[in-house]
Amino acid sequence: MTWAVVPAAGRGRRFGGEVPKQYLPILGRTVLHHALERLALHPRVRGLVVVLAADDARWPGWRELHGKPVLACTGGEERADSVLAGLRALPDTVRERDWVLVHDAARPCLRHDDLDRLLDHGMAHGVGAILAAPVRDTLKRARANGEIAGSEPRDGLWRAFTPQLFRRATLTRALESALLAAAAITDEAMAIERLGLRPMLVEGAEDNLKITTPGDLALAEYVLARLGRPG
Ligand code: C5P
Question: What mean pLDDT comes out for the span 31-60?
Fold first, then answer.
């Protein structure tokens, strides 16, 4: 049984609008509600820590969801600050070597079979693992004026998703070290890689999308309507 940390303290600058993207509605529930619910309904998830912005007035204050405990804490400036705050807010029953999932609040379409494979492969590997998908399009590098400067080989390139699975102490150490060095990291695996460790890539469904632009909201609604309730 694994706890999940859900960073939801971002302001969603790329999305725009007054309501942070994790609180936008899809099929009558917020993006955050879907993300938390799909985790809580998974039999191998023990509990949830949700990381909120200091001025978040929209959090409904849940203490449990589908029988799983929900703890809330306050995040920070960067994603790494928020995830670190979430790790520190985990209960003492989560030991140093225990596995912890980190999942974006902005990813409401997680499939249970993907989460199962992530847990199986990450734990068997030892360092941990992330859900990801191979790059399928041809990659172009742009000039400042919008012209194509050249093409980039896509062989061996993957897109990193969440959840990402690491041991509590290893991820805490990795994030503390990255923050101390002011290293720009955009996912947890990057912090782990800085320590010279090599987590596994576990191929997951491409519709585990992150709400980034208004168009993603309609797409996520379509995906969720098709997926139905997990379990
Ligand atoms: O901005 P981006 O889409 O990469 O954010 C991914 C996730 O990290 C979101 O769920 C967002 O709320 C969270 N985040 C956070 N604290 C920050 C920045 C982002 O919890 N300072």
Answer: 97
Q: Determine the atom of ligand 1 nearest the C-alpha atom of 106.
A: 10
- Banded pLDDT at 11 (limits 50, 70, 90): confident
Range of the domain at 175: 2-227
Cα separations (Å) of 92 from 53, 87, 164? Answer: 23, 11, 21
What's the structural domain count of the chain? 1
What digits encode the pLDDT tens for the residues 103-120? 999 999 999 999 999 999
Closest CA to 36 of 112, 107, 90, 99: 107
CB 5 within 8 A of CB 36: no
**pTM score above 0.90:** yes
CATH number of the CATH domain containing 175: 3.90.550.10
* Distance from residue 51's CA to the centre of ligand 1 (Å): 9
